[in-house]
Write a structure and sequence with these properties.
- By secondary structure, the chain is of the alpha/beta class.
- The strands form six sheets. Strands 5-4-8-9-3-10 form a six-stranded parallel β-sheet, sandwiched between helices.
- Helix 5 (about 55-70) crosses helix 6 (about 80-90) and helix 10 (about 165-180) runs parallel beside helix 11 (about 190-205).
């Protein structure tokens, strides 16, 4: 067990640590983030545990369900999927014994079975919490406001910022003010941010006492939301005060947020578990705005929440008119052409000044990428402006190889300090990508910083080797227990880049990436670019990817849970108003009243 995990284990179990490690090692899989079945199993077997230990077999079944769900993004699995995953980690157990322990876990409520579906208990509860929250908030009455005052405020806002809102944009603002929840979606350049800024300002004018929470799933997305709106925004984890060591949230059902209004940006990235925790702590919230682009990649963790919400008939306002400022952007135009499946060959790239395609083999990628980067640096761009994106880590054109090559351009060995961690050498001045959430230091998975200091152990000021990374003024120290939680960021995965924007994006698209090439991946990557997009690779690979929408369907039951008993269609009258009307009708029809 790593030193980092030993610290977390001691923090979690305190005086019971030794007893848990010796007698209940499989409990670590449930309680400690980052410790899987294999680690706990090795610990158990080396401290006298047996192969047929009931705790071992139960832990194996639960781990198999979770692994199957997290690898596919699904909320439930089928019997055969569990059995196949189980026998990969536990070889010698007969199917009859496997069945016995699976059924026992169902009886104990640790595995939920509905028909042929098997759920991990926490994943099952997350969908229940989400559906329950939507049912509750849908019952809030319509807001009644002075429409003349709204028109006056809108006119003032348009005059002040030189904006003319489209009919759909005005509809979004009016709907947000009137009803308890809404999804605002649309591709790049359609004015989502412009609408959000206006509706926040107008809402605060009309309802100055209501507190508004602005949240996003990543630190970079939260920072961008804050810059665009002028209001404080933070990650969902920070809003809920996540405790890394206890893997729990201080804000919860018993200690709810004080906000009345909740605005969630980059909603396509939010998974079912995290959203359920947010909703669980939102007891006082009576209005929610979900902002996201459903053409982007879904969450890494299980769930497909934005898509499920749309299929559940929640009110969706999709902005599809490209704003005047964005009409000259080839990147924006290409994104919308992908959405409408209008790209059949690469000849259209010739009409866009900000998109460039270079035919390259996998062995030519590093040479061509470095050539483009050097040219960009000559033109005044730096490592914060330029981002290389690739979908896989291994191979001659993978993230690892590209990072090594780019490090030699952006930060070659000179007189700065160096530090080797495994196969990687880090230098002062390197661009760093955070891989794990560290709420105590206010940095999160996907945040980008710069390595500013390498300090060797001196027995006085530094008791162990320490690396210091600057995240936009937030200095974070790393010691040996944290060294595997960051990497070089000159090239990163498209998943990690989601929620970020860069002036220049360079994106290889190759047959080597065949298994990863899907339209939502390419769409997400190219929409990270603000000024220039360079695509390198094989034209056939690119065309295959943008046509490939057969993303393995995530198995969820959120739609059926939301629509169970009552349909949530917020553009119809809320059940509160329907009940009120019925009460009035009953009252007027009552003989005694008459």
């Amino acid at each position: 067990i790593s030193l980092r995990h030993i610290g977390i284990i001691q923090e979690t179990y305190k005086e019971k640590t030794l007893e848990i490690l010796q007698n209940h090692p499989y409990q670590l899989v449930e309680d400690i983030d980052g410790i899987g079945f294999k680690t706990a199993d090795e610990l158990a077997l080396k401290t006298g545990g047996t192969l047929d230990n009931p705790d071992r077999l139960k832990a194996g079944v639960i781990y198999s369900i979770k692994q199957s769900c997290f690898s596919s993004g699904s909320m439930y699995v089928f019997y055969d999927e569990i059995k196949k995953a189980f026998h990969k980690i536990i070889y010698h157990i007969d199917d009859e014994v496997f069945d016995e322990y699976l059924n026992t876990l169902v009886e104990e409520g640790r595995v939920i079975k509905e028909g042929e579906y098997y759920y991990d208990e926490e994943l099952y509860e997350s969908e229940e919490i989400i559906a329950s929250f939507l049912h509750k908030i849908n019952d809030y009455p319509e807001e009644f406001y002075d429409e003349n005052e709204l028109e006056r405020l809108l006119d003032n806002y348009q005059d002040k910022f030189g904006i003319v809102y489209s009919t759909k944009q005005k509809e979004a603002i009016e709907y947000f003010l009137k009803y308890p929840m809404m999804i605002l979606t649309g591709g790049p350049g359609t004015g989502k941010t412009t609408v959000v800024k206006a509706l926040i300002q107008i809402y605060r004018t009309l309802y100055p006492k209501d507190a508004i929470s602005l949240v996003a799933p990543t630190g970079r997305a939260a920072k961008r939301l804050s810059e665009l709106t002028g209001l404080d925004a933070c990650t969902i984890h920070r809003e809920l005060k996540w405790d890394l060591h206890k893997n729990s949230f201080a804000m919860n059902r018993n200690n709810p947020l004080s906000s009345q209004v909740l605005i969630i940006d980059e909603f396509s990235m939010v998974d079912s578990l995290l959203l359920s925790k947010l909703f669980d702590a939102s007891r006082r919230v009576h209005k929610v705005l979900f902002i996201g682009d459903y053409h982007q990649l879904p969450s890494v963790a299980p769930g497909n929440v934005l898509k499920d919400f749309i299929e559940s008939q929640l009110k969706v306002i999709e902005l599809d008119e490209i704003y005047r400022q964005s009409k000259d952007s080839g990147i924006v135009q290409l994104a919308h052409q992908l959405i409408h499946q209008e790209v059949n060959d690469l000849s259209l790239f010739e009409q866009y000044k900000d998109i460039h395609f270079y035919n390259s083999t996998n062995f030519e990628i590093i040479k061509n990428v470095t050539t483009i980067v050097k040219k960009a640096i000559e033109n005044g761009y730096d490592q914060n402006d330029i981002q290389v994106l690739a979908p896989i880590y291994q191979g001659v054109a993978g993230i690892n190889a590209l990072n090594l090559a780019l490090q030699e351009i952006f930060n070659p060995k000179n007189h700065q300090e160096e530090y080797r961690i495994g196969q990687k050498v880090y230098r002062e001045g390197d661009k760093i990508l955070q891989l794990k959430n560290r709420p105590d230091d206010d940095i999160y998975n996907g945040d980008i910083g710069v390595l500013v200091e390498i300090n060797r152990k001196d027995g006085f000021e530094y008791l162990e080797d320490t690396l210091i990374v600057d995240y936009d003024g937030n200095l974070v120290e790393y010691t040996s227990k944290d060294f595997m939680t960051f990497t070089l960021a000159y090239c990163m995965s498209i998943h990690k880049a989601q929620g970020n924007e860069f002036k220049i994006v360079i994106m290889p698209v190759l047959n080597d990436y065949y298994i990863m090439l899907k339209r939502n991946l390419i769409y997400t990557g190219l929409t990270r670019a603000k000024q220039a997009l360079f695509i390198l690779g094989n034209p056939q690979a690119f065309l295959y990817g943008i046509k490939n929408i057969s993303d393995s369907k995530r198995k969820t039951t959120l739609v059926s849970k939301i629509n169970q008993n009552k349909n949530i269609e917020t553009y119809e009258e809320s059940s509160y108003n329907q009940e009120l009307k019925q009460n009035i009708t009953d009252f007027l029809n009552d003989d005694e009243t008459v």
